Amino acid sequence: MMFSKNKRMQAGDAAFSRPVIGVTVLGSGIVLLMLSMAFAISVGAADIDFFTVWRSIFDYDSTREADQIIVSLRLPRELAAAAVGAALAVSGSIMQGMTRNPLADSGLLGLNAGASLALACVFAFYPSATYLSVMIVSFIGAGIGAAMVFGLGSLKRGGLTPLRITLAGAAVTALLSAIAEGIALYYKLSQELTFWTAGGVSGTNWVQLRWLLPVVGVGIVIAIMFSKGLTVLSFGEEIAKGLGQRTLLTKTVLMCVVLILAGAAVSIAGAIAFVGLMVPHMVRFLVGTDYRWIIPCSAIFGGVLMVLADTAARLVNAPYETPVGAIVSMVGVPFFLYLARRGGRK
Amino acid sequence: MIHAQQHARVRLAVIIALLFLLALIVVSVVTGFVSLSPEQLARTLLGRGTEKEELILYGFRLPRIVITVLAGMGLAVSGSILQSITKNPLSDPGVLGINAGAGFMVVVYVMFFTVESSTYVYILPLFALLGGIITAIFIYTMAHKKGEGVDPTRLVLIGVGMAAALNGGIITLTSRLGQEEASFFANWMAGRIWGDDWTFVLALLPWILVLLPIAWAKSHVLNTLHLHEHVSIGLGVHVERERRLLILIAVALSSASVAVSGGIAFVGLMAPHIARSLVGPRLQGALPIAALLGAILLLAADTIGRAMTDPIGIPAGIVVSIIGAPYFMYLMAKK
Q1: Is the separation of the CB atoms in B139 and B97 below 8 Å?
Q2: What membrane topology does the UniProt entry give (chain B) (predicted)?
Q3: Nearest CA in chain B to A199
Q4: Residues 274-333 of A with CB under 8 A from B
Q5: Which of A182, A186, A341 faces B154 most closely, judged by CB atoms?
Q6: For position B14, what pLDDT does the model report?
Q7: Are B325 and A174 in contact (CB < 8 Å)?
Q8: What string of DSSP letters covers A62-76?
Q9: B193 lies within 8 A of chain A by CB
Q10: Domain ranges of chain A
Q11: CB A279 within 8 A of CB A105
Q12: Model pLDDT for residues B51-61, shown as the tens digit of each residue
């Protein structure tokens, strides 16, 4: 198992964290995020230089065409990409810490499929639903998916091994997406649903952002508040209890955060797997096993990853958009295979 | 005599399954948007039906039913082989990503080559096979570690990951298509039996006719592969060679089936399990039963899907998943 090495480190240094490196990584991550967003906003069908980007954001003038493109099309899109990436990465790192399972990810664990099913139901039965209700329904869907996977995975004693939870995720995903496809085909929504599933963050507007950004922000803040508990929890439930932690409270709160973040991400960008898998691993490699650093750094680098992936999706096959999920998968699958080869046994 | 009892049991199961399949075929023929009553069916079979009745029976219903039966058999036998080889009761060509690999190549073929030519029906299974084999080789090598060999758990994990990735790839490719083609593939991925004339039957039949008997003849090898590797070697089985050959057969069967039936999961998972619980784990008996059960499952799913109100119905793959996924979960909980 991949945690054995980390454990050895913890044994030598009880609170294994590297504050100096953490601050450095976090700081450079924020700079990187700014740069990649500026880059993402400036490239596209109409190339706009950095100066214009700066001017139109901080000194908006609706008569200039470039300003309109930036403020009504590109800025919301890149903000959404950053928020979605952050949400997915943070929910992935929480799940990996809580389940002590290196393969945990909202896409592989049935959350995305649950949210997709919920969305198919909304499209079919309440086509006029507002974005807020769409988002709430996605939370519920993600919750149903997660409950099924975790319930199934922990039915047997010693239950939540990487294999069991991945298989449970595959089965739940198959079931929920079959029902979703059935509904979509029956109500002739398959085109809409496909575009939405593969659509990524294109077409995000300010109305959606007004709900998305605060929800993701609050979710991440709560995650950071409970990150110390998560670090203790990641040593194992027994140790956490031995250290006097109220594990039930921590787990419940963190699970709610996971559902809110994954549901919000899915409600905007569709089912995107592998972000939540990759980012926490990379971050852990840089800042160690202390979740007080892992969570904020995951949020930043998740944002960077999604912004860059979305930019690639726009540029690879311009003027057509390549689904951003596919771009992420191209990087994510080799990563998954590597992890599965290294730590998936047992 | 245990042996004689076993044989009698297998024979009984085969007869019952065959009768059930026949009954299901009759039900399937009379079900559909344009109804064909049992009397009309009998009259048409005796050659005294109207032109319209003959067209419905021989032109639409029968070829589709034959394809469904063949594909169901192919998937079920493929699943039986894979479950024995991976020593994992939860394997099936859908779970392992082989169907997705085959499907990926089908999409590539339809996108980049002309579909108009008369031979494409026969080339399609070959393309699907190519995709299936590449995927299988990839999964197999990734799961192989020097000194440890192929770890069944790793094989399944990597397969699940590949299936997710390839399905993503299919969505990516199809999102560039026009409305009509995109909706065709949405249906195809959901497992709508789309081959509906006799050329599709001809395209699929040789694969099933050749590979099913070979698989059955190899059932004693499969029985030993299910044991520990050292035992199989001790029993004189060239484990690695036989394993590769059998994987090839399994991949070919599922790829050819997928090429005409679309992405159907869980048939290859369920049929072998039910067969084992009926006649025990010996594959000489369990394999033919699994094949018949696969045909029954898929045909039942397709018939249920077609009976849904509007003329398009619900794809068989969706019906199968809605039955199959809970069954998979039940197996996981029981194991």
Answers
A1: yes
A2: Multi-pass membrane protein
A3: B175
A4: 317, 320, 322-323, 325-326, 329, 332-333
A5: A341
A6: 87
A7: yes
A8: TTSHHHHIIIIIIHH
A9: no
A10: 26-36+84-343
A11: no
A12: 777 777 777 78
Q: Give the C-alpha separation, A106 to A111, whole Å.
A: 5
Mean pLDDT (whole number) for A46-62? 71
Identify which of B153, B156, B321 has the shortest CB distance to residue A175: B321
* Beta carbons of B252 and B211 less than 8 angstroms apart: yes
Instruction: Tell me how many degrees the CA angle A209-A214-A219 measures, rounded to the nearest 5.
Output: 125
pLDDT digits (tens, 9 = 90+) for A218-238: 999 998 888 888 888 777 777
| pLDDT attached to residue B73 | 92
**How many residues are given for chain B?**
335
Note the ipTM here: 0.75
pTM for the whole structure: 0.78
CB of B312 less than 8 A from some CB of A:
yes
Domain B12-190+206-334 has CATH 3.30.429.10: no
Q: Give me the residues of B, 131-160, that contact A with CB < 8 A.
A: 142-143, 145, 151, 153-154, 156-158, 160
Cα–Cα dist A335/A288, whole Å: 19
Q: Using an 8 Å Cβ cutoff, are A227 and A79 in contact?
A: no
Hey, which residues does B145 pair with through a beta bridge? B149
CB contacts under 8 A, A 225-264 vs B, are: none
Tens-digit pLDDT profile for residues A134-166: 888 888 888 888 888 878 777 666 556 667 777
Three-state secondary structure of chain B: CHHHHHHHHHHHHHHHHHHHHHHHHHHHHHCCCCCCCHHHHHHHHCCCCCHHHHHHHHHHHHHHHHHHHHHHHHHHHHHHHHHHHHCCCCCCCCCCCHHHHHHHHHHHHHHHCCCCCCCHHHHHHHHHHHHHHHHHHHHHHHHEECCCEECHHHHHHHHHHHHHHHHHHHHHHHCCCCHHHHHHHHHHHCCCCCCCCHHHHHHHHHHHHHHHHHHHHCHHHHHHHCCCHHHHHHCCCCHHHHHHHHHHHHHHHHHHHHHHHCCCCCHHHHHHHHHHHHHCCCHHHHHHHHHHHHHHHHHHHHHHHHHCCCCCCCCHHHHHHHHHHHHHHHHHHHC
Give the separation between CA B323 and CA A175, rounded to whole angstroms: 9
pLDDT, one tens digit per residue, over B96-124 is 888 888 888 888 887 777 666 567 777 77
A190 has a chain B CB within 8 A of its CB: yes
pLDDT of B210 strictly over 80 = yes
Per-residue model confidence (pLDDT) at position B232: 65
- Is B296's pLDDT higher than 90? yes
Residue B150 β-bridge partners = B144
Where in chain B are the domains? 12-190+206-334
- Whether residue A80 is predicted with pLDDT greater than 70 in this model: the reply is yes
Contacts of B259 (CB under 8 A, 6+ apart): B102, B106, B124, B125, B127, B128, B129, B203, B204
Q: Which fold has domain A26-36+84-343?
A: ABC transporter involved in vitamin B12 uptake, BtuC (1.10.3470)
Confidence band, pLDDT 50/70/90 cuts, at residue B291: very high
Q: Do B154 and A333 touch (CB under 8 A)?
A: no
Q: Is 70 exceeded by the pLDDT of residue B228?
A: no
Residue B37 structure tokens: 């009553």
CB atoms within 10 A of CB B24: 18
Cβ–Cβ of A345/B179 closer than 8 Å? no
